[in-house]
Every structure is written in structure tokens, then in C-alpha cells.
Amino acid sequence: MSGKTPLWRAAENEHEVVASILLERDEVNPNAADQDGQTPLSWAACKGYEGVVSTLLERDDVDPVRADENGRTPLSWAAENGHEGVVRILLERDGVDPNTADQEGRTPLSWTAENGYEGVVKILLERDGVNPDIADEYGQTPLSWAACKGHEGVMRMLLERDDVDPSTVDQEGRTTLSWAAGAGHEGVVKMLLERDGVNPDIADESGQTPFSWAASNGHEGVVGILLERDDVDPVRSDEGGRTPLSWAASKGHAAIVRMLLERDEVDPNTASRDGLTPLAWAAWKGHEGVVRILLERNDVNPAIEDVCGAGPLSWAALQGHAKIVKILLKRKGVSPNTADKEGRTPLFWAARHGHERIVRILLERNDINPDIADINGLTPLLVAMGFGRGRIVKLLLDHARFTSMIDMFPW
b/e string for 27-57 if b means 16 or more Cβ within 10 A? Predict the structure, then answer.
């Protein structure tokens, strides 16, 4: 059962006259809630039905602060959806507290700030006793929600208050600036950087700074703004050892990669904790443009191996990025026979995953050894047979230096 009474239905459909008739009946309970705990008043407030809200509140026994199963009050719903008239009506009622938080710790101001409703924000901020800086259970304040969504008008209103802290850190260690930078809101970023006491280089629990987030998410404008600051470190690594360049390369943000490579302090070979360089990340993810940009640098080493012993060529071959395989094979120092710690070569990985085009590219090399076995004794030919890669098996048989190991095939 939905729990929706006739009065609830009237409120749901904005039938003000019907609601008024029903409210004249003594047996009608105006606070009867549906299965989610929402009362007729809560629903009308959520939808912005001012007439229905006023009609319901004419009953002395209507509870204007009753919360639903999520702890949301009528005011919370009205504020979230930007219904200024309903918010004003509710705030006139005794007992309605604008600071009441729901089960997630979010206040009406938090909800409306996230959605950018400046009119409701203004109404709430004019209320005596309102606390504009209450953090929810995730540690996010109305200001951080507004910053995350890029609502500059709401940001200005909140920052005019002496009791709003723009440097608050949430449960993930992220600041208001971090959220704005990560979402690419340039105006909000500039606004926050103008505030005294805002540290633009605070890292969160994962070790990422606002700059790292902006680079990772491809926000060139924010990256440019932050690079102008002397107090922003463009090479700071996070907990995984990844730099902003690493993130930008792995996401394919070519313009940001170029911006970072122009900085003298940026080392293009800095590897993450798993040993992956920016080039390896770009090769793995298939970002051909970024691979080309990185290889324009004379100081980029295209053969650096990660902790598993795999280099950029192995990652490109494994993922099937044929164009990147071709690019890397033209580089001095890149061998098609380099094996990882388990003895697996780029040819092995291409054969294993059925990347016929890459197998052909590798077999065109005069220096290719197609019979290198891994630590389990498996050659590219054997692994291709094991996975039923018929066309690749034929290619490898035509190039194999010996075939006696076919008799040792373990499958």
C-alpha cells in the first residue's frame, strides 16, 4: 500500500478546493504520511503548491516540521526545489527551524545552495539564528555544495557572511576550492583565491590537490589560473605517486599535457608508485595525441618499465592500440622483444588478446623473436592456440623459428 490518503492525493494534484473540503472533516488526519513518510504538507511544499500549503496550515493540528523517513521536512523539500513562496510561508510558522538537518546532515540551505536558488538562499540567510556553515555527514557545507556546482551568485552571498569559512575541509579532505577546481568552475576558483586564508595547495585524503583535480578532469582554464600562483606545486604527487601530468596524460588531456611540459620543474618521466610513467599511462589508455606530444621531448624515456616489468609498448600491445605500437617502435631504445617479469613480450600480449593488426606490425620487424616463452613456457604461438586465435596462429606459424613446442602444448 502506498499510504496515500484522499487528502494526500488532493495535495499531490494541487486540488486546493478538494483539500479544503476534506480538511473540514474531523476524521481526516492531515498528518497521515505515505510509505516514504511524506505528509500532504511535505508533498505540497516539495512541488511548490502555495495554495495547498496555506490551506493545510489553516488546520491547527498540521505539523509543519514533521520529517519523512529520510529526515526531510517540508521546508527542506521546498528549499531544495527553489519554492520561495512556500519557504516564506513555512518560516512564518512557530517551530520551523531553518537549521534542521536531515539524516545526511543537510540543512535547507545546503540543498538550495547546491541547486543555485539565490532567492531561497537570500530568504534563509535573512532569518535570525540561521547557521550558514553547517556541514553535512560528508563534511560538505552549503558553500562547498555551491562551489561544486558552480553557482557564483550563491557563492557571493555566502562569502559576504563572517560566519562562513571558505577553507573548511570535508570528510574526504577536500576543500571548497578543490571541488570548484575539479568541476572546472573558473569564476568560483577566482572568487575563492581572492579570499584571505585560502590555501590553494591543500591535498585531500588521496593526496590530490585542487591543481591535480583540475588537470585530471581536463579543465584548462582552472589549470592556467592555478599555474599563475607561486603557492601551487604543479609536480606534487598524490598517495599513488601520480602527478598532475600523469593524470592529464592518462585522461588524454593533450592541451594540459602541453601546458605542464612547458614548466621547467615538470619531469615527464616521473612514475607513479606502480612504476607507470605519463607515457605508459597514455599508451595504455590509447591517447595517441598525448603519446606524440610526450615523445616530442628529447628527455622522455620510452622504455621505462613499471613494477611488473612492462613498458609503454607492452601496454599498448595488450590494449590493442596499433597506432601507438607503431609510434613507439620507431623510437630508439624500444625493443619488440622486451619481456616483463613474467617473461611476456608485447607479441605475447597481442596474441593473447587477439590483436591481429598488432601481431602483424610486430612480426614485420626484422629483430622480432616470435618464440620467446614466458615463465610458464608459453610462447605467443602457444597462447594464441590456447585462446583459439586462429588467424594469429597461422601468422605465428609462418614466422616461428621452431614448432616442436606445439607437441608440449598444455591445453
Answer: ebebeebbeeebbbbbbbbbbbbbebbebbb
Which of 35-44, 114-123, 132-141, 323-332 is predicted least confidently? 35-44
**What pLDDT is stored for residue 23 in this prediction?**
85
Using one digit for the tens of pLDDT, what is the confidence trace for 114-130?
999 999 999 999 999 99
Q: What nine digits make up the cell of 380?
A: 605467443
Interval 167-192: pLDDT, tens: 999 999 999 999 999 999 999 999 99
Closest CA to 99 of 128, 139, 119: 128
Amino acid at 391: R
Q: What would the pLDDT profile of 249-282 be if each residue is shown by its tens digit?
A: 999 999 999 999 999 999 999 999 999 999 999 9
Q: What is the pTM of this model?
A: 0.92
Q: How many residues are present in the chain?
A: 411
Q: Which residue has the higher pLDDT, 216 or 398?
A: 216
Strand partners, 335: none
With a pLDDT cut of 70, the percent of the chain lying above it is 97
CA distance 265 to 278: 15
Give the orientation angle of helix 40-47 with respect to helix 50-57, to 10 degrees: 150
